[in-house]
Amino acid sequence: MPQINQLPDIFISQLFWLAVVFGIIYFWIGRGLVPKIQSVVEDRDKKIADDLAAAQRAREQAEASEEAYRERIDASRSEAMKVAQEAKHQAALDTEKRLKAVDAKIGKKVAEAEGKIRTAADAARRELEPVAAEAASELVSKLTGQKISAKDAETTVKAVLHG
């Protein structure tokens, strides 16, 4: 192979051009591209840090808003409980008033009914006394054979019935 025979003649020139090309590439990347890449990375890091800070501020605001919301909810609940207790108390008072009024009406009706019952019982006793006196007179006459006057039988029956 003839190319291998030429290797010692061109080896130094190839090494020179290799060093020149690598040097150009090194300076082009090192001086041109690396600063641009670093500035992009730094900008990106700064944007991420700013976004994280903004997110943290938003989170703190959200927590503060949530705390205020919870306080308002707690205040509303306590106010609602207070209103409910007042309404319950008022309803109990109204119910008590109604019960007293109904109780008074019922008491009045009971008193009227008791009066009617007493009147009816007295009327029944008055009607019962002559019948009882007549029955007692007949019983005595059948049992003993003696006749008792209606007046005596009536006084005896009255004494037994009225104590």
UniProtKB/TrEMBL annotation:
Major subcellular location class: membrane
Tree of life domain: Bacteria
Coiled-coil region(s): 52-79
Pfam families in UniProt: ATP-synt_B (PF00430)
Transmembrane stretches, start-end: 12-29
InterPro entries (UniProt xref): ATP_synth_b/b'su_bac/chlpt, ATP_synthase_B_chain
Function as written in the Swiss-Prot or TrEMBL entry: Component of the F(0) channel, it forms part of the peripheral stalk, linking F(1) to F(0). The b'-subunit is a diverged and duplicated form of b found in plants and photosynthetic bacteria.
Subunit structure: F-type ATPases have 2 components, F(1) - the catalytic core - and F(0) - the membrane proton channel. F(1) has five subunits: alpha(3), beta(3), gamma(1), delta(1), epsilon(1). F(0) has three main subunits: a(1), b(2) and c(10-14). The alpha and beta chains form an alternating ring which encloses part of the gamma chain. F(1) is attached to F(0) by a central stalk formed by the gamma and epsilon chains, while a peripheral stalk is formed by the delta and b chains.
Family indicated by similarity: Belongs to the ATPase B chain family.
Name of the protein this chain belongs to: ATP synthase subunit b
Species of the source: Sphingomonas sediminicola
Lineage summary: Bacteria, Pseudomonadati, Pseudomonadota, Alphaproteobacteria, Sphingomonadales
Gene: atpF
